[in-house]
Protein backbone atom coordinates (compact mmCIF):
# COMPACT_ATOMS: atom_id res chain seq x y z
CA UNK A 1 0.00 0.00 0.00
CA UNK A 2 2.83 2.36 0.88
CA UNK A 3 4.51 1.73 -2.48
CA UNK A 4 1.25 2.50 -4.29
CA UNK A 5 0.90 5.80 -2.42
CA UNK A 6 4.51 6.77 -3.13
CA UNK A 7 4.13 5.84 -6.82
CA UNK A 8 0.92 7.88 -7.06
CA UNK A 9 2.50 10.93 -5.42
CA UNK A 10 5.60 10.75 -7.62
CA UNK A 11 3.49 10.47 -10.77
CA UNK A 12 1.31 13.39 -9.64
CA UNK A 13 4.41 15.45 -8.83
CA UNK A 14 5.95 14.68 -12.23
CA UNK A 15 2.66 15.67 -13.92
CA UNK A 16 2.51 18.97 -12.02
CA UNK A 17 6.16 19.81 -12.79
CA UNK A 18 5.59 19.11 -16.49
CA UNK A 19 2.45 21.24 -16.38
CA UNK A 20 4.46 24.13 -14.95
CA UNK A 21 7.11 23.68 -17.61
CA UNK A 22 4.34 23.83 -20.24
CA UNK A 23 3.18 27.07 -18.60
CA UNK A 24 6.53 28.66 -19.39
CA UNK A 25 5.86 27.91 -23.06
CA UNK A 26 2.32 29.32 -22.93
CA UNK A 27 1.62 31.78 -25.74
CA UNK A 28 -2.12 32.22 -25.12
CA UNK A 29 -4.35 31.53 -22.09
CA UNK A 30 -4.31 27.76 -21.50
CA UNK A 31 -2.42 27.14 -24.78
CA UNK A 32 1.23 26.04 -24.81
CA UNK A 33 3.53 25.30 -27.73
CA UNK A 34 3.36 21.73 -26.56
CA UNK A 35 1.92 20.08 -23.47
CA UNK A 36 4.28 17.46 -21.94
CA UNK A 37 1.75 16.30 -19.27
CA UNK A 38 -0.41 14.87 -22.07
CA UNK A 39 2.46 12.57 -23.07
CA UNK A 40 2.93 11.49 -19.46
CA UNK A 41 -0.81 10.83 -19.07
CA UNK A 42 -0.99 8.68 -22.20
CA UNK A 43 2.16 6.75 -21.29
CA UNK A 44 0.96 6.24 -17.71
CA UNK A 45 -2.33 4.74 -18.87
CA UNK A 46 -0.54 2.53 -21.40
CA UNK A 47 1.77 1.13 -18.73
CA UNK A 48 -0.33 1.34 -15.54
CA UNK A 49 -3.88 1.27 -16.95
CA UNK A 50 -6.56 2.47 -14.47
CA UNK A 51 -4.01 2.61 -11.63
CA UNK A 52 -2.75 5.93 -13.03
CA UNK A 53 -6.11 7.66 -12.46
CA UNK A 54 -5.55 8.89 -8.86
CA UNK A 55 -2.21 10.55 -9.68
CA UNK A 56 -3.47 12.33 -12.81
CA UNK A 57 -6.67 13.46 -11.07
CA UNK A 58 -4.63 14.80 -8.14
CA UNK A 59 -2.37 16.68 -10.54
CA UNK A 60 -5.38 18.12 -12.36
CA UNK A 61 -6.94 19.42 -9.14
CA UNK A 62 -3.68 20.99 -7.94
CA UNK A 63 -3.04 22.68 -11.29
CA UNK A 64 -6.61 23.99 -11.46
CA UNK A 65 -6.08 25.74 -8.12
CA UNK A 66 -2.75 27.01 -9.41
CA UNK A 67 -4.30 28.35 -12.62
CA UNK A 68 -6.90 30.24 -10.61
CA UNK A 69 -4.13 31.82 -8.53
CA UNK A 70 -2.04 32.71 -11.60
CA UNK A 71 -4.93 34.48 -13.32
CA UNK A 72 -6.16 36.15 -10.10
CA UNK A 73 -9.51 34.41 -10.28
CA UNK A 74 -11.85 34.88 -7.29
CA UNK A 75 -13.71 31.57 -7.68
CA UNK A 76 -14.33 29.90 -4.29
CA UNK A 77 -12.03 27.00 -3.43
CA UNK A 78 -14.85 24.46 -3.24
CA UNK A 79 -15.95 25.35 -6.78
CA UNK A 80 -12.35 25.15 -7.96
CA UNK A 81 -12.02 21.69 -6.46
CA UNK A 82 -15.11 20.54 -8.35
CA UNK A 83 -13.81 22.19 -11.53
CA UNK A 84 -10.41 20.54 -11.04
CA UNK A 85 -12.01 17.14 -10.57
CA UNK A 86 -14.18 17.58 -13.66
CA UNK A 87 -11.19 18.83 -15.64
CA UNK A 88 -9.22 15.80 -14.45
CA UNK A 89 -11.93 13.47 -15.73
CA UNK A 90 -12.15 15.42 -19.00
CA UNK A 91 -8.38 15.13 -19.41
CA UNK A 92 -7.93 11.52 -18.30
CA UNK A 93 -10.98 9.81 -19.85
CA UNK A 94 -9.97 10.34 -23.52
CA UNK A 95 -6.38 9.28 -22.87
CA UNK A 96 -7.43 6.27 -20.81
CA UNK A 97 -9.78 5.07 -23.57
CA UNK A 98 -7.13 5.79 -26.21
CA UNK A 99 -4.46 3.90 -24.26
CA UNK A 100 -6.80 0.96 -23.71
CA UNK A 101 -7.68 0.87 -27.41
CA UNK A 102 -4.02 1.12 -28.49
CA UNK A 103 -2.83 -1.54 -26.09
CA UNK A 104 -5.63 -3.89 -27.17
CA UNK A 105 -4.61 -3.47 -30.81
CA UNK A 106 -0.90 -3.92 -30.09
CA UNK A 107 -1.55 -7.14 -28.18
CA UNK A 108 -3.22 -8.50 -31.32
CA UNK A 109 -0.34 -7.39 -33.52
CA UNK A 110 2.30 -9.33 -31.58
CA UNK A 111 5.92 -8.60 -32.54
CA UNK A 112 5.49 -8.21 -36.32
CA UNK A 113 3.46 -5.04 -36.74
CA UNK A 114 5.75 -2.04 -36.46
CA UNK A 115 4.09 -0.04 -39.24
CA UNK A 116 0.65 -0.82 -37.79
CA UNK A 117 1.94 0.13 -34.34
CA UNK A 118 3.07 3.56 -35.55
CA UNK A 119 -0.13 4.15 -37.51
CA UNK A 120 -2.35 3.13 -34.59
CA UNK A 121 -0.33 5.22 -32.12
CA UNK A 122 -0.52 8.39 -34.23
CA UNK A 123 -4.20 7.97 -35.10
CA UNK A 124 -5.31 7.23 -31.54
CA UNK A 125 -3.07 9.99 -30.16
CA UNK A 126 -4.72 12.52 -32.50
CA UNK A 127 -8.23 11.40 -31.56
CA UNK A 128 -7.52 11.23 -27.81
CA UNK A 129 -5.85 14.65 -27.69
CA UNK A 130 -8.70 16.18 -29.74
CA UNK A 131 -11.28 14.89 -27.26
CA UNK A 132 -9.17 15.97 -24.29
CA UNK A 133 -8.77 19.49 -25.71
CA UNK A 134 -12.44 19.85 -26.56
CA UNK A 135 -13.63 18.59 -23.16
CA UNK A 136 -10.93 20.58 -21.35
CA UNK A 137 -11.93 23.89 -22.92
CA UNK A 138 -15.61 23.19 -22.22
CA UNK A 139 -14.80 22.54 -18.55
CA UNK A 140 -12.72 25.72 -18.37
CA UNK A 141 -15.61 27.76 -19.78
CA UNK A 142 -18.09 26.13 -17.41
CA UNK A 143 -15.77 26.82 -14.46
CA UNK A 144 -15.31 30.49 -15.46
CA UNK A 145 -11.59 29.91 -16.05
CA UNK A 146 -11.98 30.65 -19.76
CA UNK A 147 -14.24 33.15 -21.51
CA UNK A 148 -16.84 31.52 -23.77
CA UNK A 149 -15.81 33.62 -26.76
CA UNK A 150 -12.22 32.38 -26.34
CA UNK A 151 -13.19 28.73 -26.73
CA UNK A 152 -13.04 28.59 -30.52
CA UNK A 153 -9.55 30.05 -30.80
CA UNK A 154 -8.25 28.15 -27.75
CA UNK A 155 -9.18 24.53 -28.49
CA UNK A 156 -7.09 24.26 -31.70
CA UNK A 157 -3.72 25.29 -30.17
CA UNK A 158 -4.72 23.31 -27.06
CA UNK A 159 -5.30 20.24 -29.24
CA UNK A 160 -2.09 20.61 -31.25
CA UNK A 161 -0.11 21.27 -28.06
CA UNK A 162 -1.52 18.14 -26.45
CA UNK A 163 -0.94 16.12 -29.61
CA UNK A 164 2.68 17.28 -29.82
CA UNK A 165 3.25 16.28 -26.20
CA UNK A 166 1.74 12.83 -26.77
CA UNK A 167 3.58 12.07 -30.02
CA UNK A 168 6.96 13.31 -28.81
CA UNK A 169 7.03 12.31 -25.15
CA UNK A 170 4.91 9.16 -24.81
CA UNK A 171 7.65 7.02 -26.42
CA UNK A 172 10.28 8.61 -24.13
CA UNK A 173 8.26 7.81 -21.01
CA UNK A 174 7.57 4.26 -22.21
CA UNK A 175 11.28 3.83 -22.99
CA UNK A 176 12.20 4.89 -19.46
CA UNK A 177 9.68 2.47 -17.98
CA UNK A 178 10.63 -0.39 -20.31
CA UNK A 179 14.21 -0.30 -19.01
CA UNK A 180 12.87 -1.33 -15.62
CA UNK A 181 10.03 -3.45 -16.95
CA UNK A 182 11.35 -5.03 -20.18
CA UNK A 183 8.21 -7.18 -20.46
CA UNK A 184 6.40 -4.06 -21.70
CA UNK A 185 8.07 -4.52 -25.09
CA UNK A 186 6.11 -7.74 -25.61
CA UNK A 187 2.99 -5.78 -26.51
CA UNK A 188 4.60 -2.86 -28.33
CA UNK A 189 4.02 -4.43 -31.76
CA UNK A 190 7.71 -4.74 -32.67
CA UNK A 191 8.76 -1.35 -31.26
CA UNK A 192 11.82 -1.84 -29.04
CA UNK A 193 13.45 0.80 -26.86
CA UNK A 194 16.67 -1.08 -26.17
CA UNK A 195 19.80 0.84 -27.07
CA UNK A 196 20.26 -1.01 -30.36
CA UNK A 197 23.17 -0.73 -32.77
CA UNK A 198 25.14 2.33 -33.76
CA UNK A 199 27.52 4.41 -31.74
CA UNK A 200 26.48 7.27 -29.49
CA UNK A 201 29.19 9.46 -31.02
CA UNK A 202 27.61 9.08 -34.46
CA UNK A 203 24.18 9.84 -33.00
CA UNK A 204 25.57 12.88 -31.17
CA UNK A 205 26.93 14.23 -34.46
CA UNK A 206 23.51 13.87 -36.09
CA UNK A 207 21.86 15.51 -33.10
CA UNK A 208 24.32 18.42 -33.29
CA UNK A 209 23.48 18.88 -36.97
CA UNK A 210 19.77 18.98 -36.10
CA UNK A 211 20.33 21.58 -33.36
CA UNK A 212 22.45 23.76 -35.66
CA UNK A 213 19.89 23.58 -38.48
CA UNK A 214 17.11 24.42 -36.03
CA UNK A 215 19.06 27.37 -34.67
CA UNK A 216 19.64 28.70 -38.20
CA UNK A 217 15.94 28.38 -39.04
CA UNK A 218 14.89 30.17 -35.85
CA UNK A 219 17.40 32.99 -36.27
CA UNK A 220 16.39 33.56 -39.89
CA UNK A 221 12.75 33.65 -38.84
CA UNK A 222 13.57 36.13 -36.07
CA UNK A 223 15.37 38.61 -38.33
CA UNK A 224 13.43 38.10 -41.52
CA UNK A 225 10.70 40.50 -42.54
CA UNK A 226 8.86 37.70 -44.33
CA UNK A 227 6.34 35.66 -42.36
CA UNK A 228 7.02 32.68 -44.59
CA UNK A 229 10.49 32.33 -43.01
CA UNK A 230 8.86 30.54 -40.05
CA UNK A 231 8.13 27.59 -42.34
CA UNK A 232 11.86 26.90 -42.74
CA UNK A 233 11.58 24.72 -39.64
CA UNK A 234 9.82 22.07 -41.70
CA UNK A 235 13.17 21.31 -43.37
CA UNK A 236 14.09 19.59 -40.09
CA UNK A 237 12.04 16.65 -41.39
CA UNK A 238 15.08 15.56 -43.42
CA UNK A 239 17.73 15.19 -40.66
CA UNK A 240 15.18 13.68 -38.25
CA UNK A 241 14.19 11.14 -40.91
CA UNK A 242 17.91 10.42 -41.26
CA UNK A 243 18.04 9.67 -37.54
CA UNK A 244 14.93 7.48 -37.56
CA UNK A 245 16.20 5.53 -40.58
CA UNK A 246 19.70 4.92 -39.21
CA UNK A 247 19.24 4.85 -35.43
CA UNK A 248 17.21 2.92 -32.86
CA UNK A 249 13.73 3.98 -31.68
CA UNK A 250 15.27 5.12 -28.39
CA UNK A 251 17.66 7.53 -30.13
CA UNK A 252 14.87 8.70 -32.42
CA UNK A 253 12.75 9.50 -29.36
CA UNK A 254 15.66 11.40 -27.78
CA UNK A 255 16.26 13.40 -30.98
CA UNK A 256 12.58 14.33 -31.21
CA UNK A 257 12.47 15.37 -27.55
CA UNK A 258 15.56 17.57 -27.93
CA UNK A 259 14.26 19.14 -31.15
CA UNK A 260 10.80 19.80 -29.70
CA UNK A 261 12.06 21.17 -26.39
CA UNK A 262 14.51 23.59 -27.99
CA UNK A 263 11.82 24.71 -30.44
CA UNK A 264 9.23 25.28 -27.71
CA UNK A 265 11.53 27.29 -25.43
CA UNK A 266 13.16 29.28 -28.24
CA UNK A 267 9.88 30.67 -29.54
CA UNK A 268 9.40 32.77 -26.40
CA UNK A 269 13.07 33.66 -26.03
CA UNK A 270 13.37 34.87 -29.64
CA UNK A 271 10.05 36.67 -29.77
CA UNK A 272 8.45 34.34 -32.30
CA UNK A 273 5.12 33.90 -30.52
CA UNK A 274 3.25 35.28 -33.56
CA UNK A 275 4.28 32.08 -35.36
CA UNK A 276 3.59 29.74 -32.45
CA UNK A 277 0.96 27.67 -34.23
CA UNK A 278 3.33 27.19 -37.20
CA UNK A 279 5.92 25.70 -34.87
CA UNK A 280 3.23 23.62 -33.14
CA UNK A 281 2.27 22.04 -36.43
CA UNK A 282 5.94 21.65 -37.34
CA UNK A 283 6.66 19.67 -34.17
CA UNK A 284 3.62 17.46 -34.78
CA UNK A 285 4.29 16.83 -38.47
CA UNK A 286 8.04 16.27 -38.06
CA UNK A 287 7.56 13.92 -35.10
CA UNK A 288 4.91 11.91 -36.97
CA UNK A 289 7.15 11.68 -40.05
CA UNK A 290 10.11 10.56 -37.96
CA UNK A 291 8.07 7.79 -36.35
CA UNK A 292 6.96 6.63 -39.79
CA UNK A 293 10.64 6.66 -40.79
CA UNK A 294 11.26 3.88 -38.29
CA UNK A 295 9.07 1.57 -40.36
CA UNK A 296 11.21 1.91 -43.51
CA UNK A 297 14.09 -0.41 -42.41
CA UNK A 298 11.53 -2.85 -41.00
CA UNK A 299 9.58 -2.90 -44.26
CA UNK A 300 12.79 -3.30 -46.28
CA UNK A 301 13.90 -6.19 -44.09
CA UNK A 302 10.44 -7.77 -44.32
CA UNK A 303 10.43 -7.43 -48.11
CA UNK A 304 13.89 -8.97 -48.29
CA UNK A 305 12.65 -11.84 -46.14
CA UNK A 306 9.61 -12.38 -48.37
CA UNK A 307 11.80 -12.20 -51.49
CA UNK A 308 14.12 -14.76 -49.96
CA UNK A 309 11.18 -17.01 -49.09
CA UNK A 310 9.78 -16.80 -52.62
CA UNK A 311 13.07 -17.08 -54.51
CA UNK A 312 14.78 -19.86 -52.54
CA UNK A 313 13.90 -23.39 -51.59
CA UNK A 314 13.56 -23.60 -47.82
CA UNK A 315 15.51 -26.85 -47.42
CA UNK A 316 18.38 -26.66 -49.88
CA UNK A 317 18.57 -22.88 -50.57
CA UNK A 318 18.51 -23.64 -54.29
CA UNK A 319 16.35 -21.36 -56.41
CA UNK A 320 12.62 -22.05 -56.26
CA UNK A 321 10.90 -23.25 -59.43
CA UNK A 322 9.33 -19.81 -60.01
CA UNK A 323 12.60 -17.93 -59.45
CA UNK A 324 14.49 -20.40 -61.65
CA UNK A 325 12.07 -19.81 -64.54
CA UNK A 326 12.33 -16.02 -64.12
CA UNK A 327 16.13 -16.23 -64.24
CA UNK A 328 15.95 -18.60 -67.18
CA UNK A 329 13.89 -16.12 -69.22
CA UNK A 330 16.36 -13.32 -68.51
CA UNK A 331 19.47 -15.38 -69.25
CA UNK A 332 17.93 -16.84 -72.40
CA UNK A 333 17.19 -13.37 -73.78
CA UNK A 334 20.77 -12.29 -73.01
CA UNK A 335 22.19 -15.40 -74.66
CA UNK A 336 20.19 -14.83 -77.84
CA UNK A 337 21.18 -11.15 -78.00
CA UNK A 338 24.83 -12.17 -77.77
CA UNK A 339 24.35 -15.23 -79.96
CA UNK A 340 25.71 -17.49 -77.22
CA UNK A 341 24.63 -21.08 -76.41
CA UNK A 342 22.76 -21.98 -73.24
CA UNK A 343 22.05 -25.46 -71.87
CA UNK A 344 20.06 -27.13 -69.12
CA UNK A 345 20.77 -30.14 -66.91
CA UNK A 346 18.02 -31.98 -65.06
CA UNK A 347 18.99 -34.49 -62.40
CA UNK A 348 17.52 -36.34 -59.45
CA UNK A 349 18.68 -38.59 -56.63
CA UNK A 350 18.59 -42.28 -57.43
CA UNK A 351 16.32 -44.40 -55.21
CA UNK A 352 15.29 -41.40 -53.15
CA UNK A 353 12.00 -43.01 -52.06
CA UNK A 354 13.85 -46.09 -50.82
CA UNK A 355 16.21 -43.87 -48.78
CA UNK A 356 13.25 -42.07 -47.16
CA UNK A 357 11.40 -45.33 -46.47
CA UNK A 358 14.46 -47.07 -45.01
CA UNK A 359 16.27 -44.31 -43.14
CA UNK A 360 13.56 -41.69 -42.64
CA UNK A 361 12.89 -38.28 -44.11
CA UNK A 362 15.53 -36.54 -41.99
CA UNK A 363 18.26 -38.61 -43.64
CA UNK A 364 16.63 -38.04 -47.04
CA UNK A 365 16.58 -34.28 -46.46
CA UNK A 366 20.20 -34.41 -45.35
CA UNK A 367 21.11 -36.19 -48.59
CA UNK A 368 19.41 -33.46 -50.65
CA UNK A 369 21.23 -30.71 -48.75
CA UNK A 370 24.62 -32.41 -49.21
CA UNK A 371 23.99 -32.92 -52.92
CA UNK A 372 23.03 -29.26 -53.32
CA UNK A 373 26.23 -28.18 -51.56
CA UNK A 374 28.35 -30.46 -53.73
CA UNK A 375 26.71 -29.21 -56.94
CA UNK A 376 27.06 -25.55 -55.96
CA UNK A 377 30.76 -26.10 -55.30
CA UNK A 378 31.22 -27.12 -58.96
CA UNK A 379 29.07 -24.44 -60.61
CA UNK A 380 30.04 -20.97 -61.79
CA UNK A 381 28.56 -17.81 -60.32
CA UNK A 382 26.58 -17.28 -63.51
CA UNK A 383 24.96 -20.75 -63.35
CA UNK A 384 21.57 -21.19 -61.73
CA UNK A 385 20.60 -24.22 -59.64
CA UNK A 386 16.92 -24.72 -58.89
CA UNK A 387 14.87 -27.32 -57.07
CA UNK A 388 11.76 -28.34 -58.97
CA UNK A 389 10.30 -30.42 -56.14
CA UNK A 390 11.11 -33.59 -54.22
CA UNK A 391 14.54 -34.80 -55.37
CA UNK A 392 14.40 -33.19 -58.82
CA UNK A 393 16.82 -30.37 -59.67
CA UNK A 394 17.52 -28.21 -62.71
CA UNK A 395 20.69 -26.34 -63.69
CA UNK A 396 20.88 -23.51 -66.21
CA UNK A 397 24.30 -23.07 -67.84
CA UNK A 398 24.79 -19.79 -69.78
CA UNK A 399 27.51 -19.69 -72.50
CA UNK A 400 27.58 -23.50 -72.53
CA UNK A 401 26.72 -25.84 -75.40
CA UNK A 402 25.50 -29.40 -75.02
CA UNK A 403 28.99 -30.87 -75.04
CA UNK A 404 30.12 -28.50 -72.31
CA UNK A 405 26.99 -29.28 -70.29
CA UNK A 406 27.73 -33.00 -70.49
CA UNK A 407 31.21 -32.28 -69.15
CA UNK A 408 29.70 -30.35 -66.24
CA UNK A 409 27.32 -33.24 -65.55
CA UNK A 410 30.27 -35.67 -65.37
CA UNK A 411 31.99 -33.49 -62.76
CA UNK A 412 28.79 -33.25 -60.76
CA UNK A 413 28.23 -37.00 -60.90
CA UNK A 414 31.76 -37.61 -59.66
CA UNK A 415 31.44 -35.05 -56.84
CA UNK A 416 28.11 -36.53 -55.67
CA UNK A 417 29.60 -40.02 -55.56
CA UNK A 418 32.11 -38.82 -52.93
CA UNK A 419 29.46 -37.59 -50.49
CA UNK A 420 29.48 -39.48 -47.20
CA UNK A 421 26.47 -39.42 -44.86
CA UNK A 422 27.28 -41.37 -41.66
CA UNK A 423 23.74 -42.64 -41.12
CA UNK A 424 23.40 -43.81 -44.73
CA UNK A 425 24.99 -47.11 -45.76
CA UNK A 426 24.46 -46.74 -49.52
CA UNK A 427 26.54 -44.51 -51.78
CA UNK A 428 24.63 -41.57 -53.19
CA UNK A 429 24.21 -41.31 -56.94
CA UNK A 430 22.23 -39.19 -59.37
CA UNK A 431 20.98 -39.56 -62.93
CA UNK A 432 21.35 -36.68 -65.40
CA UNK A 433 19.60 -35.45 -68.53
CA UNK A 434 21.25 -32.75 -70.68
CA UNK A 435 19.78 -30.55 -73.42
CA UNK A 436 20.88 -27.40 -75.25
CA UNK A 437 18.26 -24.74 -75.79
CA UNK A 438 17.64 -24.33 -79.51
CA UNK A 439 17.26 -21.03 -81.32
CA UNK A 440 13.82 -19.43 -80.78
CA UNK A 441 12.84 -22.34 -78.50
CA UNK A 442 10.87 -21.72 -75.30
CA UNK A 443 12.81 -22.71 -72.20
CA UNK A 444 10.12 -25.20 -71.14
CA UNK A 445 10.59 -27.13 -74.40
CA UNK A 446 14.28 -27.57 -73.58
CA UNK A 447 13.38 -28.52 -70.00
CA UNK A 448 11.02 -31.17 -71.35
CA UNK A 449 13.77 -32.59 -73.57
CA UNK A 450 16.20 -32.66 -70.63
CA UNK A 451 13.51 -34.44 -68.59
CA UNK A 452 13.10 -37.11 -71.26
CA UNK A 453 16.87 -37.59 -71.32
CA UNK A 454 16.79 -38.00 -67.52
CA UNK A 455 14.09 -40.66 -67.82
CA UNK A 456 16.25 -42.46 -70.36
CA UNK A 457 19.18 -42.37 -67.91
CA UNK A 458 16.89 -43.99 -65.32
CA UNK A 459 15.85 -46.72 -67.75
CA UNK A 460 19.45 -47.40 -68.67
CA UNK A 461 20.42 -48.26 -65.10
CA UNK A 462 20.67 -44.93 -63.17
CA UNK A 463 23.88 -43.17 -62.06
CA UNK A 464 24.55 -42.08 -65.61
CA UNK A 465 24.26 -39.15 -68.01
CA UNK A 466 22.09 -39.00 -71.11
CA UNK A 467 21.92 -36.13 -73.56
CA UNK A 468 19.01 -35.13 -75.72
CA UNK A 469 19.26 -36.40 -79.24
CA UNK A 470 18.07 -33.18 -80.91
TrEMBL record:
Protein name in the entry: diguanylate cyclase
Instruction: Output the superkingdom of the source species.
Output: Bacteria
Q: List the EC numbers from the record.
A: 2.7.7.65
Q: Which Gene3D superfamilies match?
A: 3.30.70.270
**Record key words, sorted:** Cell membrane, Membrane, Transmembrane, Transmembrane helix
Q: Where in the cell is it found?
A: Cell membrane
Which Pfam families does this one have? GGDEF (PF00990), MASE1 (PF05231)
- Reactions it catalyzes: 2 GTP = 3',3'-c-di-GMP + 2 diphosphate
Q: What are the TM regions of this chain, as residue ranges?
A: 33-50, 84-102, 114-136, 156-179, 200-223, 229-246, 253-272, 278-301
Q: Which InterPro entries match?
A: Diguanylate_Cyclase (IPR050469), GGDEF_dom (IPR000160), MASE1 (IPR007895), Nucleotide_cyclase (IPR029787), Rev_trsase/Diguanyl_cyclase (IPR043128)
Instruction: Domain (GGDEF): give its ranges.
Output: 340-470
